[in-house]
Design brief:
By secondary structure, the protein is mainly alpha-helical. Helices cover about 60% and strands about 5% of the residues. It has a two-stranded antiparallel sheet with strand order 1-2. α2 packs across α4. The protein is globular.
Length: about 200
């Protein structure tokens, strides 16, 4: 639920603080935040209490206000371009996809990709939709300072590239479970014909 992440950011909470307040483990939260399992009513109530909102606000995307973020243009645009390349797509394809959802969000992505300044202000929804389009965790773009998410996602992208080069058409990365980034990179090296890590 992107709504939970949006509300969390609006309240100034880290993921860890939210999980502590809601009494959830990180793996439990990630399985639901990644849409592999739905939240139940107890989850919604715990998250609402942790966020200081009603369960309806947690459950309803329409009730959550948009969150604007000031982001570093260069590094974030580089991540978006990496996702575009991994999708074997183009920036134009991404922008057309976003315009079909919400034209102002496509304009935000265009601003990021064409930025000539150090930072840009974006609606967080732009980043969430790009991550969803590329099938990576939204935090890879919205929480770009989280080294663990960055390392895990970039290892998945390396594996995705290696699998594509080896002729595999697709993989459900959520099916990989909690493989470590090192294990994902070892599989990628093996697919490329390199020596697997010990």
């Amino acid at each position: 639920m992107a709504n939970v992440d949006r509300l969390r950011r609006a309240k100034g909470l880290t993921v860890g603080e939210l999980l502590s307040r809601a009494g959830m483990t990180k793996s439990y939260y990630q399985s639901r935040a990644g849409f592999s399992l739905p939240y139940n009513t107890n989850d919604l109530e715990a998250l609402a209490a942790a966020l200081g909102v009603t369960p309806e606000e947690v459950a309803s995307p329409e009730s959550a206000g948009r969150v604007e973020m000031r982001v570093p243009a260069g590094p974030l645009a580089e991540r978006v371009r990496r996702l575009v390349a991994t999708q074997r797509s183009s920036e134009t394809d991404l922008l057309v996809h976003l315009a079909g959802i919400d034209p102002p969000l496509a304009d935000g992505a265009r601003t990021l990709l064409g930025a000539e300044t150090n930072t840009v202000v974006l609606d967080e929804e732009v980043l969430r939709l790009i991550a969803h389009w590329a099938d990576v965790p939204g935090e890879y773009l919205t929480d770009y300072t989280d080294e663990a998410i960055t390392d895990r996602t970039e290892a998945e992208l390396e594996l995705r590239d290696a699998m594509h080069a080896a002729g595999a058409s697709s993989i459900q990365f959520r099916a990989l479970g909690q493989m470590s980034p090192d294990a994902l990179r070892a599989i990628a090296r093996s697919l490329r014909g390199g020596t697997p890590a010990a």
